[in-house]
Amino acid sequence: MTLQRRWLIAAGAGFIVALVLPRVGVPTFYISLLTQAWIYAIVAMSLDLLVGFTGLVNFSQAALFGVGAYAVAIAATRYHVVDFFPVVCIGIIAAVVTAAIFGLVALRSEGVGFIIITIALNEIVWGLAYQWVSVSGGDNGITGIVRPPVGPFDVSANTGYYYVCLAFFVISLILLSIIVRSPFGLVLKGVRETPRRMRALGYNVWLYRYFAMMISAGFAGLAGVLFAWYNQFVGPTSLSLDQSTQILIMVILGGIGTLYGQLFGALVVVFLSNELSAVTQRWEMVLGVVYFVVVMYAPGGLVVLVPRLWARLRGLRPAVERT
User: Fold this and answer.
1) For 48, left (φ over 0), alpha (ψ -120 to 50), or beta?
2) Are the CB atoms for 236 and 139 separated by under 8 Å?
3) How many CB atoms lie within 10 A of CB 14?
4) CA of 52: how far to CAs of 48, 57, 184, 192, 211, in Å?
5) Nearest CA among 102, 47, 62 for reference residue 252
6) What residues contact 144, with CB distance under 8 A and at least 6 apart?
7) Is the N or C terminus of the chain more exposed, i.e. has fewer CB atoms within 10 Å?
8) Which pTM does this prediction carry?
9) Is-contact 122 239, C-beta < 8 A?
10) pLDDT tens-digit readout, 236-260
């Protein structure tokens, strides 16, 4: 059996398990954490499109995520736009427009310069959310966000909303997989590896990176919309630099350039941060040790580490280590 087929079988089994979990007596708290993991997996995959396939380490992903969340909050509380799909579109468009502006500034540089500019842009948006009290609510954020029904389905309960976020995660994974396997995605990989050669071949490297940023922003905005409905509250922490760092950690933990690996990264970060914070006040230090161990001993992320451990338990050498 090929490795790809094994992954497909594992993915199918995992999807079936995810479908039945709310129906087999799993506590509501863990269903809520899983909902949060689906959301963070979407935004982590959106960042992986840039980091893993385009070679752009973007520290402003939380700003795009937060813009989508604030768009929902403002549309719902100020303009009373509460229909599900129109609000989703508003959040996505707001994030894409923000990324279009960011790209014009950040893509003037590469490497470390790009990272520094995206950090500055993220801080600017965070500052606006913190200081523009009349629009964003400042440090108090925006409350009173009600989850709208999805057609005939009521998603006000945690279980119903769990399935909505799971569906959007699966759709996002499929769409992003199609994108990275398309001719456009192949060009992005070429831009990541040898931008000079791609320029010499006649490709507009800047334009491809620009489009990649806007596509990535669309998925980040979608995740922000779902996050706003999940919490029914939006505040400046949603688009802080800490949030951007956390999203990047999910990408690294899951496996850069894998897409599906970001689900593992999101699950680890969401569940460990919640469980450890209930056990010790030094939970961030413990979480840091976990990150360090994974990065040191599994640079390819959990999608490499898990098969390797499984192979060793069975007394076999993993496929990636065979000569």
Assistant:
1) alpha
2) yes
3) 12
4) 5, 9, 14, 8, 15
5) 47
6) 76, 77, 232
7) C
8) 0.92
9) yes
10) 999 999 999 999 999 999 889 999 8
